[in-house]
Write a structure and sequence with these properties.
- With about 90 residues, the chain is mostly helical.
- It is built from 4 helices and no strands.
- The radius of gyration is 22 Å and the shape is elongated.
Length: about 90
C-alpha cells in the first residue's frame, strides 16, 4: 500500500529525526528508553499543533525531557608566561 504521507506525518517524522540527531550530537546515548522519551516529546508537541514550527518546538523542549551531559569546556590556550628570548 503506497499512499502519500500527509503533512502532519511528515512533520512528525522530521521532528523526531531532528530530536534524535540533536541528542546524539549532544552525547546522549540513544537507548530504547531515550527513543521512547523522544517519541513522548514529539507527541506532546503535536498535541499543541502540527504547524511548520513543530521541529523547532521539539528542540526547545528537549531540556524538559532529557538530562543532558555536562559540558566541560577546556581553556582556550595555555596560560601565558613571560620569557626571555635573549635580547639585552
Amino acid at each position: 500500500m503506497t499512499g502519500a504521507l500527509s503533512m502532519p506525518e511528515v512533520l512528525c517524522q522530521h521532528a523526531l529525526e531532528r530530536v534524535l540527531a540533536y541528542l546524539g550530537d549532544d552525547g546522549v546515548v540513544l537507548t530504547a528508553e531515550a527513543c521512547r522519551q523522544a517519541l513522548r516529546l514529539v507527541e506532546s508537541a503535536l498535541a499543541d499543533g502540527a504547524g511548520p514550527d513543530l521541529p523547532a518546538r521539539c528542540i526547545t523542549s528537549i531540556p524538559e525531557y532529557f538530562e543532558r551531559p555536562q559540558e566541560i569546556i577546556p581553556d582556550a590556550a595555555p596560560p601565558l608566561k613571560r620569557g626571555c628570548i635573549g635580547y639585552e
